[in-house]
Amino acid sequence: MDFQVLDAVDNAPGWWNFLLLTKNPERYLELDIPGNCWVGATATNQAEMDRAIKVFEQLKKRKGNLRFVSCEPLMGPVDADLSCIDWLIIGGRSKSKGMPAGQPEWKWVWNLMKCADRAGLGERVYWKPNLTIVPKGYPRLQKKKPERTRLLPGQG
To answer: CA–CA separation, 8 vs 14, rounded Å?
Structure first.
């Protein structure tokens, strides 16, 4: 097997990071992936998410790569423990030959956000520009209230 691409990645200057994205995440388990790679898997439905999570649980134990899942296009409901990933990408279906653009159901996006919150992903959720149903009112996306200041005597 020819590993020229991974060799080039490994020999790249330290300020370079590379993103790998696959629909076959089990392949990562067969490779020695350099530390300057973000490893990602496409998961458009529950079965693909389960497959990605199973692989990333193993990668988390033995590798230091940043792990992400791309749910683009999100095509079904997903409920998963996302604690083994570092980033989540959510998107709609882009227009392509023979396929119109489309949006996932709101409840699918909402449920995936709850999974991200339970995993502590915080602001590490990327909304693809083709996703028009971003939950703007989702509590974790709102600005925090300013802390109360203590009044000094006479300011009351």
So the answer is: 12
Supply the pLDDT for residue 142: 41
Q: What angle do CA 18, 20, 22 make, to 5 degrees?
A: 175
Mean pLDDT by 10 residues, the chain (156 residues): 85 90 96 93 98 96 88 96 97 87 91 95 90 65 42 45
The two structure tokens encoding residue 134: 């971003």
Dist CA 60 CA 57 (whole Å) = 5
- Return the DSSP state at 128: -
CB contact at 8 A, 46 and 79 = yes
Query: Residue 27: how many CB atoms within 10 A of its CB?
Result: 14
What token pair was written down for 50?
């389960």
Separation between Cα atoms, residue 155 and residue 66, nearest integer Å: 50
